[in-house]
Structure formats: structure tokens, C-alpha cells
Specification:
The structure is a single chain. The chain folds into 2 domains: 82 residues, Arc Repressor Mutant, subunit A, CATH 1.10.10; 99 residues. Helix content is 67%, strand content 7%. The protein contains 8 helices and 3 strands, in the order H-E-H-H-E-E-H-H-H-H-H. Helix 1 packs across helix 4, helix 2 packs across helix 3 and helix 6 packs antiparallel against helix 7. The termini are far apart. The relative contact order is 0.11.
Length: 195
């Protein structure tokens, strides 16, 4: 199974969910480390059902047809725990922003600074979003609407997301300073030429 498959199992182990709820969970909670959409969630659920890793109950829906709400089976939980007990591989980062940053020295400083500011604002917005999710998670724990196991797992990934967004925003600020015509490397180069 792929990492995304285990993320689906973990989410269902925390709380039974429909395919729609799972896709929304990925958007809310897991988008910063394991994105998934409807096109990957539904085929995985079908496969898991045939492998006896999940089961579902058909429940009425507030809107439209009945929904299948999936829960993890004992076999699914055993597979998830077995996988979670193994050491994780080193993460592989694919970041278009960093590839573009390789060429920022060739851009006019104003253009590079504008791009970095837009990127920083996006990460600051993501940071605020994750911090709000953490506040809501705390409320759910106090209200008893989430298990301690689900709370801990969700809190751990949210804290990683918060840390990553904070770090990315800080990198943007550092990059802006390096590119700045008055403070950064360009200013150092101009000063050395003047001497």
C-alpha cells in the first residue's frame, strides 16, 4: 500500500467517515504532507473493502442519497499499526518555489521581491488556518467529541504543519532581505564595486 492509503486508514481509525468526509479531511488536516482528492479516496475505499480493511454502514444523508460511512476493521487496524511501527523513510521534498528561487538572481530585484512577498503571504495564511484548526481541535477534546488517540495524532500533524508554514514564511523574509537592493547581496556587490 502507498502512504496515502495508510493516511486514509488512520483517518477512518480516528473516526468513521464517508468518502466525501475523507476528501475534506485531507484538505483540512493532511494537505501539507499527504494530499488526496476524491479520485484517489474512492478507489482506495473500494479496494480496502474488498481486502476487509474497512467496512461501511449506509446512513441517511441530510442532502441527497444515502451515504456509505466507513470504519476500520480489526484487520485494517492491525495493518495500520504494523506499518506505523516501522521507521519512516526520509521525506522527499518537491518544491517549485525553491526551483524558481534558483533563478531569482537573474530577475529584477523588484520582481523577485514581489514573488517572495506573495509566497510569504500564502504561507502566513496557511499558518493562521492550521492554528485555527488546532484551536478547534482543543475544543473538540474538551467537549469529548474526539478520542484522545485521534486528538494526539491530529495534533502532531497540525503542529508539523504549523512549524513548516512558520519556517517557510521566515525563509521568505530572509530571502527578501538577501535580494533587497539596499540590504542584501546586491547591496554588498555594489559596495564592493565602488571600492
Amino acid at each position: 500500500m502507498k502512504m496515502r492509503d495508510y493516511a486514509i486508514l488512520a483517518s477512518i481509525a480516528h473516526e468513521p467517515k464517508s468518502g466525501y468526509d475523507l476528501a475534506k479531511w485531507f484538505d483540512r488536516v493532511a494537505s501539507h504532507f499527504c494530499p488526496a482528492g476524491y479520485s484517489s479516496v474512492y478507489p482506495a475505499l473500494s479496494r480496502f473493502e474488498s481486502e476487509d480493511l474497512v467496512e461501511y454502514d449506509t446512513v441517511p444523508s441530510e442532502k441527497g442519497p444515502k451515504r456509505k460511512v466507513y470504519s476500520i476493521t480489526q484487520k485494517g487496524k492491525q495493518a495500520l499499526v504494523r506499518w506505523a511501527s516501522e521507521p519512516a523513510a526520509d521525506p522527499q521534498v518537491r518544491d517549485e518555489q525553491l526551483v524558481k528561487a534558483l533563478s531569482y538572481g537573474m530577475l529584477p530585484p523588484e520582481k523577485a521581491l514581489t514573488l517572495l512577498e506573495e509566497t510569504r503571504e500564502r504561507h502566513v495564511s496557511n499558518l493562521a488556518y492550521f492554528e485555527e484548526l488546532e484551536r478547534k481541535l482543543e475544543v473538540r477534546l474538551r467537549e469529548g467529541s474526539i478520542s484522545k488517540e485521534a486528538y494526539l495524532g491530529t495534533l502532531l500533524v497540525l503542529r508539523r504543519g504549523i512549524s513548516a508554514e512558520r519556517c517557510y514564511a521566515q525563509w521568505c523574509e530572509e530571502a527578501e532581505e538577501l535580494i533587497s537592493p539596499t540590504k542584501g547581496l546586491r547591496a554588498d556587490a555594489v559596495r564592493s564595486l565602488e571600492q
